[in-house]
Design a protein that fits this description.
Elements (H helix, E strand, L loop, with lengths): L7 H6 E3 L5 E3 L13 H6 L4 E2 L2 H10 L4
């Protein structure tokens, strides 16, 4: 049987962590940054954890992660 392909868009956005979840970049950090506080922008630098309800779908898109 041939190898399964990873979803290339998901592969660029998500990395699996040791506990089996996925880490991803925080949203709302691309533009319109002037109205956002410095504290808010600083906290958006950290990697976010994907919500538990989305983990199963993401795991299907990344079979070898």
């Amino acid at each position: 049987m041939p190898k399964m392909k990873s979803h290339s868009g998901a592969a660029k956005r998500f990395k699996r962590n040791a506990s089996g979840g996925f880490k991803c970049g925080a949203s709302h950090r691309r533009h319109i940054l002037t109205k956002k506080s410095t504290k808010r922008k600083r906290q958006l630098r950290k990697a976010a954890t994907l919500h538990q309800s989305d983990v199963r779908m993401t795991a299907r898109m990344l079979p070898y992660s």
